[in-house]
Amino acid sequence: MNGISAMSIHRQFLERVFQKLLLNFTWWVNIKDSDGNGVFEGGFLGLDNIGVFNRSEPLPTGGSLEQTDATGWMAFFSLQMLNIALELAKENPVYEDIASKFFEHYLLIADAMSFQSARVNEDRKGKTTNESLWSETDQFFYDAITWGDNHKQKLPVRSLVGLIPLYASLTLEPEILKRFPNFTKRLDWLVENKQYLIKRNIGCMNVKGSGDRLLLSLVSKDRLLAILSKMFDEDEFLSNYEF
Protein backbone atom coordinates (compact mmCIF):
# COMPACT_ATOMS: atom_id res chain seq x y z
CA MET A 1 0.00 0.00 0.00
CA ASN A 2 2.89 2.32 -0.97
CA GLY A 3 4.37 2.22 2.52
CA ILE A 4 1.16 3.43 4.18
CA SER A 5 -0.21 0.98 6.73
CA ALA A 6 -3.85 -0.03 6.77
CA MET A 7 -4.08 1.33 10.32
CA SER A 8 -2.84 4.73 9.13
CA ILE A 9 -5.46 4.81 6.38
CA HIS A 10 -8.18 3.88 8.85
CA ARG A 11 -7.05 6.61 11.21
CA GLN A 12 -7.03 9.21 8.44
CA PHE A 13 -10.56 8.19 7.51
CA LEU A 14 -11.65 8.38 11.14
CA GLU A 15 -10.15 11.84 11.51
CA ARG A 16 -11.84 13.14 8.35
CA VAL A 17 -15.17 11.76 9.51
CA PHE A 18 -14.67 13.22 12.99
CA GLN A 19 -14.25 16.75 11.61
CA LYS A 20 -17.49 16.47 9.64
CA LEU A 21 -19.35 14.96 12.58
CA LEU A 22 -18.08 17.81 14.75
CA LEU A 23 -19.76 20.30 12.43
CA ASN A 24 -22.96 18.27 12.53
CA PHE A 25 -22.88 18.06 16.33
CA THR A 26 -22.37 21.82 16.61
CA TRP A 27 -25.34 22.40 14.29
CA TRP A 28 -27.58 20.26 16.50
CA VAL A 29 -26.49 22.06 19.66
CA ASN A 30 -26.85 25.56 18.19
CA ILE A 31 -30.02 25.09 16.13
CA LYS A 32 -32.06 22.29 17.67
CA ASP A 33 -31.48 23.06 21.35
CA SER A 34 -33.14 26.47 21.19
CA ASP A 35 -33.35 26.95 24.96
CA GLY A 36 -29.82 25.74 25.63
CA ASN A 37 -31.12 23.27 28.21
CA GLY A 38 -29.83 20.05 26.66
CA VAL A 39 -33.26 18.94 25.40
CA PHE A 40 -33.57 18.81 21.61
CA GLU A 41 -36.55 19.90 19.56
CA GLY A 42 -35.88 18.82 16.01
CA GLY A 43 -33.54 17.48 13.42
CA PHE A 44 -34.29 14.69 10.96
CA LEU A 45 -33.27 11.30 12.34
CA GLY A 46 -35.11 9.14 9.82
CA LEU A 47 -37.38 8.13 12.69
CA ASP A 48 -40.23 10.54 12.05
CA ASN A 49 -42.80 7.77 11.75
CA ILE A 50 -42.32 6.64 15.36
CA GLY A 51 -43.80 9.79 16.90
CA VAL A 52 -47.33 11.13 17.23
CA PHE A 53 -46.88 14.22 15.06
CA ASN A 54 -45.44 14.89 11.61
CA ARG A 55 -42.27 16.63 12.66
CA SER A 56 -41.79 18.24 9.27
CA GLU A 57 -44.81 20.45 9.99
CA PRO A 58 -45.71 22.87 12.81
CA LEU A 59 -47.50 21.32 15.76
CA PRO A 60 -51.30 21.60 15.48
CA THR A 61 -51.29 22.50 19.17
CA GLY A 62 -48.71 25.25 18.81
CA GLY A 63 -45.64 25.24 21.02
CA SER A 64 -42.46 23.22 20.61
CA LEU A 65 -41.97 19.46 20.67
CA GLU A 66 -39.24 18.30 23.04
CA GLN A 67 -38.11 15.02 21.55
CA THR A 68 -37.00 12.07 23.62
CA ASP A 69 -35.49 10.29 20.62
CA ALA A 70 -33.57 13.35 19.40
CA THR A 71 -32.25 14.03 22.90
CA GLY A 72 -31.33 10.39 23.46
CA TRP A 73 -29.65 10.37 20.07
CA MET A 74 -27.55 13.40 21.02
CA ALA A 75 -26.41 11.65 24.19
CA PHE A 76 -25.45 8.67 22.00
CA PHE A 77 -23.75 11.07 19.56
CA SER A 78 -21.74 12.60 22.42
CA LEU A 79 -20.51 9.21 23.61
CA GLN A 80 -19.52 8.11 20.11
CA MET A 81 -17.60 11.35 19.55
CA LEU A 82 -15.90 10.78 22.91
CA ASN A 83 -14.95 7.28 21.80
CA ILE A 84 -13.57 8.45 18.44
CA ALA A 85 -11.64 11.28 20.11
CA LEU A 86 -9.93 8.83 22.48
CA GLU A 87 -8.97 6.61 19.55
CA LEU A 88 -7.47 9.57 17.69
CA ALA A 89 -5.73 10.74 20.87
CA LYS A 90 -3.54 7.64 20.74
CA GLU A 91 -1.45 9.49 18.14
CA ASN A 92 -2.56 13.10 18.62
CA PRO A 93 -2.93 14.21 22.26
CA VAL A 94 -4.99 17.24 21.23
CA TYR A 95 -8.00 14.95 20.95
CA GLU A 96 -7.79 14.05 24.64
CA ASP A 97 -9.18 17.47 25.59
CA ILE A 98 -11.91 17.09 22.98
CA ALA A 99 -12.89 13.76 24.52
CA SER A 100 -13.30 15.52 27.88
CA LYS A 101 -15.57 18.10 26.27
CA PHE A 102 -17.84 15.43 24.84
CA PHE A 103 -18.02 13.73 28.23
CA GLU A 104 -19.31 17.01 29.65
CA HIS A 105 -21.85 17.30 26.82
CA TYR A 106 -23.06 13.81 27.63
CA LEU A 107 -23.50 14.63 31.32
CA LEU A 108 -25.48 17.80 30.63
CA ILE A 109 -27.79 16.09 28.13
CA ALA A 110 -28.31 13.13 30.45
CA ASP A 111 -29.17 15.42 33.33
CA ALA A 112 -31.58 17.53 31.31
CA MET A 113 -33.35 14.50 29.94
CA SER A 114 -33.52 12.06 32.78
CA PHE A 115 -33.22 13.83 36.11
CA GLN A 116 -35.24 17.00 36.08
CA SER A 117 -38.34 15.12 37.20
CA ALA A 118 -37.30 16.37 40.62
CA ARG A 119 -37.50 19.97 39.48
CA VAL A 120 -41.04 21.29 39.41
CA ASN A 121 -42.14 24.74 38.31
CA GLU A 122 -45.41 26.47 39.01
CA ASP A 123 -47.17 28.06 36.06
CA ARG A 124 -49.40 31.12 36.08
CA LYS A 125 -52.51 29.06 36.84
CA GLY A 126 -50.93 27.47 39.88
CA LYS A 127 -50.33 24.11 38.20
CA THR A 128 -47.04 22.29 38.50
CA THR A 129 -45.12 21.33 35.41
CA ASN A 130 -42.59 18.52 35.21
CA GLU A 131 -39.44 19.43 33.29
CA SER A 132 -38.13 15.94 32.68
CA LEU A 133 -38.87 13.69 29.72
CA TRP A 134 -38.99 10.78 32.15
CA SER A 135 -42.32 9.86 33.74
CA GLU A 136 -41.90 8.66 37.30
CA THR A 137 -45.49 7.41 37.23
CA ASP A 138 -45.18 5.32 34.06
CA GLN A 139 -41.44 4.63 34.35
CA PHE A 140 -40.88 5.50 30.69
CA PHE A 141 -39.55 8.30 28.48
CA TYR A 142 -42.06 10.45 26.57
CA ASP A 143 -41.96 13.41 24.20
CA ALA A 144 -43.38 16.65 25.56
CA ILE A 145 -44.92 19.84 24.18
CA THR A 146 -43.88 23.13 25.72
CA TRP A 147 -45.63 26.48 25.58
CA GLY A 148 -43.25 28.95 27.16
CA ASP A 149 -41.09 28.43 30.21
CA ASN A 150 -43.65 27.08 32.66
CA HIS A 151 -46.10 25.05 30.63
CA LYS A 152 -45.22 21.54 29.52
CA GLN A 153 -47.34 18.52 28.68
CA LYS A 154 -45.90 15.04 28.24
CA LEU A 155 -47.33 12.85 25.49
CA PRO A 156 -47.97 9.52 27.28
CA VAL A 157 -47.69 7.34 24.19
CA ARG A 158 -45.67 4.13 24.27
CA SER A 159 -43.49 4.08 21.17
CA LEU A 160 -39.93 3.47 20.05
CA VAL A 161 -39.31 7.10 20.99
CA GLY A 162 -38.93 5.95 24.59
CA LEU A 163 -36.44 3.22 23.71
CA ILE A 164 -33.91 5.40 21.86
CA PRO A 165 -32.26 6.57 25.13
CA LEU A 166 -31.02 2.99 25.60
CA TYR A 167 -28.64 3.58 22.67
CA ALA A 168 -26.60 6.02 24.75
CA SER A 169 -24.12 3.76 26.50
CA LEU A 170 -20.36 3.31 26.38
CA THR A 171 -17.90 1.16 28.31
CA LEU A 172 -14.51 2.67 29.12
CA GLU A 173 -11.81 0.04 29.58
CA PRO A 174 -9.27 0.52 32.41
CA GLU A 175 -6.46 0.57 29.83
CA ILE A 176 -8.01 3.65 28.23
CA LEU A 177 -8.28 5.46 31.56
CA LYS A 178 -4.61 4.70 32.31
CA ARG A 179 -3.45 5.73 28.85
CA PHE A 180 -5.11 9.15 28.96
CA PRO A 181 -4.35 10.72 32.35
CA ASN A 182 -5.68 14.17 31.45
CA PHE A 183 -9.03 12.76 30.36
CA THR A 184 -9.18 10.56 33.46
CA LYS A 185 -8.24 13.49 35.70
CA ARG A 186 -11.10 15.55 34.26
CA LEU A 187 -13.51 12.63 34.56
CA ASP A 188 -12.48 12.01 38.18
CA TRP A 189 -12.86 15.72 38.98
CA LEU A 190 -16.40 15.74 37.63
CA VAL A 191 -17.28 12.58 39.54
CA GLU A 192 -15.86 14.11 42.73
CA ASN A 193 -17.19 17.66 42.38
CA LYS A 194 -20.42 17.25 40.41
CA GLN A 195 -22.13 14.65 42.57
CA TYR A 196 -25.48 16.30 41.85
CA LEU A 197 -24.98 15.10 38.27
CA ILE A 198 -23.19 11.81 38.87
CA LYS A 199 -25.54 10.38 41.50
CA ARG A 200 -28.73 11.09 39.64
CA ASN A 201 -30.69 8.79 37.41
CA ILE A 202 -27.94 7.82 35.00
CA GLY A 203 -25.63 4.84 35.19
CA CYS A 204 -23.61 5.05 38.41
CA MET A 205 -20.07 6.29 37.76
CA ASN A 206 -18.95 5.97 41.36
CA VAL A 207 -18.79 2.19 41.12
CA LYS A 208 -16.73 0.39 38.48
CA GLY A 209 -17.83 -2.89 36.96
CA SER A 210 -16.12 -6.14 36.08
CA GLY A 211 -12.43 -5.68 35.34
CA ASP A 212 -12.58 -2.06 36.58
CA ARG A 213 -14.60 -1.05 33.54
CA LEU A 214 -16.58 2.18 33.72
CA LEU A 215 -20.07 2.27 32.21
CA LEU A 216 -21.55 5.46 30.83
CA SER A 217 -25.28 4.99 30.41
CA LEU A 218 -28.24 7.34 30.03
CA VAL A 219 -30.39 5.22 32.33
CA SER A 220 -29.80 3.81 35.78
CA LYS A 221 -30.22 0.11 36.52
CA ASP A 222 -33.69 0.67 37.99
CA ARG A 223 -34.83 2.65 34.95
CA LEU A 224 -33.31 0.13 32.58
CA LEU A 225 -35.28 -2.67 34.22
CA ALA A 226 -38.45 -0.57 34.08
CA ILE A 227 -38.02 0.11 30.35
CA LEU A 228 -37.13 -3.51 29.56
CA SER A 229 -40.20 -4.75 31.42
CA LYS A 230 -42.29 -2.90 28.84
CA MET A 231 -40.02 -3.70 25.92
CA PHE A 232 -40.39 -7.46 26.53
CA ASP A 233 -44.09 -7.34 27.36
CA GLU A 234 -46.32 -8.76 24.61
CA ASP A 235 -49.04 -6.32 25.64
CA GLU A 236 -46.64 -3.44 25.05
CA PHE A 237 -43.79 -3.82 22.51
CA LEU A 238 -42.85 -7.46 22.11
CA SER A 239 -44.50 -9.28 19.24
CA ASN A 240 -45.53 -12.87 19.82
CA TYR A 241 -44.63 -13.65 16.22
CA GLU A 242 -41.20 -14.68 14.98
CA PHE A 243 -39.52 -13.43 11.84
From TrEMBL:
<comment type="function">
    <text>Cleaves the distal alpha 1,2-linked glucose residue from the Glc(3)Man(9)GlcNAc(2) oligosaccharide precursor.</text>
</comment>
<dbReference type="GO" id="GO:0006487">
    <property type="term" value="P:protein N-linked glycosylation"/>
</dbReference>
<comment type="similarity">
    <text>Belongs to the glycosyl hydrolase 63 family.</text>
</comment>
<protein>
    <recommendedName>
        <fullName>Mannosyl-oligosaccharide glucosidase</fullName>
        <ecNumber>3.2.1.106</ecNumber>
    </recommendedName>
</protein>
<dbReference type="GO" id="GO:0009311">
    <property type="term" value="P:oligosaccharide metabolic process"/>
</dbReference>
<dbReference type="InterPro" id="IPR012341">
    <property type="entry name" value="6hp_glycosidase-like_sf"/>
</dbReference>
<keyword id="KW-0256">Endoplasmic reticulum</keyword>
<keyword id="KW-0378">Hydrolase</keyword>
<keyword id="KW-0325">Glycoprotein</keyword>
<keyword id="KW-0326">Glycosidase</keyword>
<dbReference type="GO" id="GO:0005789">
    <property type="term" value="C:endoplasmic reticulum membrane"/>
</dbReference>
<dbReference type="InterPro" id="IPR008928">
    <property type="entry name" value="6-hairpin_glycosidase_sf"/>
</dbReference>
<dbReference type="InterPro" id="IPR004888">
    <property type="entry name" value="Glycoside_hydrolase_63"/>
</dbReference>
<comment type="pathway">
    <text>Glycan metabolism; N-glycan degradation.</text>
</comment>
<dbReference type="GO" id="GO:0004573">
    <property type="term" value="F:Glc3Man9GlcNAc2 oligosaccharide glucosidase activity"/>
</dbReference>
